[in-house]
Amino acid sequence: DYVFFQQPYNVARPDAYMSLAVSNYAKVCYLTYYVMVDLDGRTEACTPVAFFHDLSFYFSQNEADAAFIQGRLEKGGPNLCRVEITGHPRLEGLEKHREDACDLWNREDNFKILWMPRWTTHEGNCHFFSYREPLTAWCREHEGAELMLRPHPQAFKEWRSTGEMTEE
Q: Nearest to residue 46, comparing CAs of 54, 55, 36?
């Protein structure tokens, strides 16, 4: 009855899983995988009108996000999408875990780097390939340094499709 998408990128899906196809047999719901601080910085690429036009429900992180999306929906013409302000699940549970230990890091006294590179290089703001070798080398040379990589969900697929990275 309901299909939830966490990314609005129809271009990355097979035809059968595009929002228009899915909306023919189910209510399409969207909850962003990201938390947007700069709402005005979003572009058509991040909020494609064609995808949003197929939605039945948009779960918004706050009032500003809801107003922004309502404006995007109006650009697509008449639609039946309900915008519901629900908060953001990825943030809502963080406060209760503030003091929790994390076994992903080996020691308390080390220098920790969490690297979350952009998913595409064509915009000129992803420096993964420039920094990959120097950063990993620096961490190997410094005993107290730890590096955790958390790439964007689209990153490896994108880099393989452009030839910047191989499957191996």
A: 36
